[in-house]
Design brief:
3 domains, 24 strands, glycosyltransferase, binds (1S)-1,5-anhydro-1-(4-bromo-2,5-dihydroxyphenyl)-D-glucitol, 10-stranded mixed β-sheet, 6-stranded parallel β-sheet, transferase, EC 2.4.1.1, Pyridoxal_P_attach_site, Rossmann fold, about 45% helix, about 800 residues, 33 helices, carbohydrate metabolism
Length: about 800
């Protein structure tokens, strides 16, 4: 039996196992693997045993896929990413392998609740936000499409920090101890360990230059299986762990220097110790460059060893037919000089041949428009840590400049385009290195790709237009619809007559006709109501919140960043509150809302942290004020992560995508919401543009300035204070913050925020405030008509099939990777 992609459904791992058989295997694993009687086992033990059993179900398909990949002739994809924000593995593995129903039966037989078992899993938070979650969606879709692929990254011992709020509402960061009690999915593959070296110098031997490093660590791969949905393919996510070659120095220990004896171990393990919590602004830290080189060097060597097994002098001119590497942002771009080094210094190729291979295997995805988010490494740091790479980068730059001169490019433009800046303290522009050293550069939404060509990489796109392309982001409907929202999934399958939409999401279009079918609309309303009730229970249990299910659930979940403008949302809430307090608005005239925020701030980002504190204190004041009780409440569940997203998105009715136009590269939360029947209030930014054009202007609450308006206002000279003076609602809100209403009378608490609003407001929150308030009234009007609202929501779902990561991966296959399913 095959599906449209010609994939073999019957090859689906696990699909032939009965519930009873699965129960036996789990019991056996509990008894023999954990030495516990099933009837005595804890949820954590059953979880661990279940994971082991499910893993075993996938082994055969995994091995088959691996050998087909090595022996076959289909170009594989190596996705190089410093982040993978995976979320829990067990429910996903069960769904993709067809073991969901047998597992339910098995749990019933053994006397456990599946949800209790799932709850025992700690989610691997090996990413910060959108970029890391995108990588996780893409490896799911690569497997689901049957494409031979590797995800390569770092197995951080501590992932994204756990967020807590203190008494004052400030963010506190705690270590994410996800490995505390072990973890059943990763397989430490010692046999594939690689040496990764650092430092030292370069020595000339005749006409050959070789690197003599002065220290090295062992990179040990921890392999995770990535089962495709109903495809029978299981790919590998290979996350590297850093270890010391000499873990323990006995001589030092014997001199009673117990700490000194483990210094090399500590130093080596530091490399994969912790995920950098910066999202979209780089931190120029030596350790971060060490992390980047560490995983990229190990991955490239691993890929070569995989495709040329046992060959001492492989013909690496064939490498581009074996694999291509996708650079997820600039973090892995050091791979370009590393492959040049491997080809020249280790395998004896000349520059031209090495360059021809290198530029054909690498492609680069840019995820940002913020100039400060493009990594630039001090040349001095690269020279110190990776002296041979520094030489190679200079030579790439020299040849590139010569090429530009040959094309009659002006000196001024050449200086703008140099990979290595001309300065006393030169820097290496990693985005430029990626653009020059690879075949394609893509942005992550239509608008973003256009702005890359027009602004960020303008000079490059003018000279090398064929390099530039777009792939609009996508999300996996398996995790974010099927698993997160089983009720809606069942309704969709009922409406469409099958569940084939899960691997062909454009089929959702068939729901459009049902938007005018009253009984379908009723069922849709009932699904949302039940999801809201679930969220209320979850939030009560987990956070102690008392949420009124009969309010509009209005959610803004994403990293805390000025450009995303959580400020705009909280100012609007404050303005509404102020209007009630001053008697201008009767709270009974409002559509009752629960405004829900989820956001982590980078630990060193002061303005973002002040915003978090403000939101928490607005929540404290508003939620305790009987005057607005029943009309307005604000909730800020801490530690926003995949689990929270999976609970909140299906329950949300209105989602906020309100970044300043031209700043959000794409956004992917917007897609998850649309697919789950939420309506968006948003600016024309990132992928919002494409969502709106697909779902239709009537079904999207658009407001605010567009990119051209922003540019114009900026060049005219933007004065935020004028907006403060002009709109009394805005003035009242800011005055309330400044006067200490949310800091027990203390006027200095939010000084930085208030000062910034009134004097800088770089992302023009104040300029968009009035339009934002006005659209909120329209939203209230629309919400009063519950059936009309549901109809719009259904149309959103029906027209969002494009935003599947399966479609995105197919676009990459066609436009960039030039490959497809394993043949
Ligand atoms: C990150 O999460 C994103 C961009 C970055 O440069 C870094 Br670093 C981290 C996000 C963008 O901000 C989103 O707009 C986009 O949807 C996401 O990457 C995935 O492309």
């Amino acid at each position: 039996m095959t599906n449209q992609q010609g994939l073999d459904y019957t090859a689906r791992p696990g699909s032939t196992v009965s519930g009873h058989e699965l129960a036996n295997q789990i019991s056996q694993e509990l008894r023999l693997g954990q030495e516990v009687e099933p009837s005595q086992a804890t949820s954590a033990q059953v979880y661990k045993a279940s994971a082991a059993v499910v893993r075993r179900q996938m082994v055969e398909a995994w091995q088959r896929g691996q050998s087909q990949m090595v022996q076959g002739h289909t170009r594989a994809v190596g996705y190089l990413s410093a982040e993978y924000l995976l979320g829990k593995q067990l429910p996903n593995a069960l769904l993709n392998t067809g073991l969901e129903a047998p597992f339910q039966q098995a749990m019933q037989e053994l006397g456990f609740e599946p949800d209790d078992i799932f709850a025992a899993e700690r989610e691997p938070g090996l990413g910060n936000g959108g970029l890391g979650r995108l990588a996780a969606c893409y490896i799911d879709s690569l497997s689901s499409e049957g494409v031979p692929a590797f995800g390569y990254g770092i197995r951080y011992q501590y992932g994204i920090f756990e967020q807590a709020f203190d008494q004052e509402g400030r963010q506190r960061e705690l270590a994410d101890t996800w490995l505390e009690e072990g973890e059943p999915w990763g397989f430490e593959n010692f046999g594939r360990a690689r040496r990764v070296s650092f430092g030292g110098s370069v020595v000339a031997e005749g006409d050959r230059r070789t690197w003599q490093p002065d220290w090295a660590v062992k990179a040990v791969p921890v392999d995770y299986m990535v089962p495709g949905y109903a495809s029978g393919r299981v790919n590998t996510l290979r996350l590297w762990e850093a270890k010391a070659y000499q873990e323990f120095d006995l001589a030092t220990f014997n001199q009673s220097d117990y700490i000194g004896a483990v210094v090399p171990k500590v130093k080596a393990e530091t490399i994969s110790k912790v995920l950098y919590p910066e999202d979209s602004t780089p931190q120029g830290k030596e350790l971060r460059l060490e992390q980047q080189y560490f995983f990229v060097a190990a991955s490239l060597a691993d890929a070569i060893a995989t495709f040329y097994p046992g060959e001492r002098e492989p013909d690496l001119t064939t490498l581009p037919s074996k694999i291509c590497f996708q650079l997820n942002d600039t973090h892995p771009v050091i791979g370009i000089p590393e492959l040049m080094r491997l080809l020249m210094d280790e395998h004896g190729y000349g520059w031209d041949e090495a360059w021809s291979i290198t530029t054909r295997v690498f492609n680069y995805t840019c995820h940002t428009l913020l100039p400060e988010a493009l990594e630039e490494w001090p040349a001095q740091l690269i020279a110190h840590l990776l002296p041979r790479h520094w030489e190679i980068i200079q030579e790439i730059d020299r040849r590139f400049v010569a090429d530009l001169q040959a094309r009659q490019v002006s000196d001024e433009q050449i200086d703008r385009m140099r990979i290595v800046t001309k300065a006393d303290q030169p820097k290496v522009r990693m985005a430029y290195l990626a653009t020059v050293g690879g075949s394609y550069v893509n942005g992550v939404a239509e608008l973003h790709s256009q702005l890359l060509k027009d602004v960020t990489l303008k000079d490059f796109s003018a000279l090398f237009p064929e390099k530039f392309t777009n792939v609009t982001n996508g999300v996996t409907p398996r995790r974010f619809v099927r698993l997160a929202n089983p009720r809606l999934s069942a309704l969709i399958s009922e409406g469409l007559g099958s569940d084939a939409w899960l691997s062909d999401l454009e089929q959702l279009k068939g729901l459009e006709a049902l938007a005018d079918d009253p009984s379908f609309v009723d069922k849709f309303i009932e699904v949302k109501r039940a999801n809201k009730a679930d969220f209320v229970a979850f939030a009560q249990r987990k956070y102690g919140f008392e949420i009124d299910p009969d309010t509009m659930f209005d959610s803004m979940i994403k990293r805390l960043h000025e450009y995303k403008r959580q400020s705009l949302k909280i100012l609007a809430v404050i303005a509404q509150y102020a209007a009630v307090k001053s008697g201008q608005v009767d709270p009974r005239s409002l559509v009752p809302r629960t405004v829900i925020f989820g956001a982590k701030a980078a630990p060193g980002y002061a303005m973002a942290k002040e915003t978090i504190q403000l939101i928490n204190n607005v929540a404290r004041v508003v939620n305790n004020d009987p005057q607005v009780a029943g009309a307005l409440s604000v909730r800020f569940p801490w530690n926003y992560n995949i689990e929270l997203a999976e609970h909140l998105i299906p329950a949300t009715e209105l989602d906020e995508q309100i970044s300043q136009a031209g700043k959000e590269a794409s956004g992917t939360g917007n897609m998850k919401f649309a697919l789950n029947g939420s309506l968006t209030v948003g600016t024309l930014d990132g992928a919002n543009v494409e969502i709106r054009s697909r779902v239709g202007a009537d079904n999207f609450f658009l407001f605010g300035m567009q990119v051209e308006d922003v540019d114009r206002l900026y060049s005219e000279g933007y004065d935020p204070r004028a907006y403060y003076e002009a709109d009394p609602r805005l003035k009242a809100a800011i005055d309330m913050v400044a006067s200490g209403s949310f800091s027990e009378g203390e006027r200095s608490t939010y000084r930085n925020l208030v000062e910034d609003w009134l004097s800088k407001d770089y992302f023009m929150t104040l300029a968009d405030f009035s339009a934002y308030m006005d659209i909120q009234s329209e939203i209230d009007e629309a919400y009063r008509d519950q059936r009309g609202w549901a109809r719009k929501a259904i149309i959103n779902v029906a027209n969002s099939g494009f935003f599947s990561s399966d479609r995105a991966v197919k676009d990459y296959l066609e436009r960039i990777w030039h490959t497809g399913p394993q043949e």
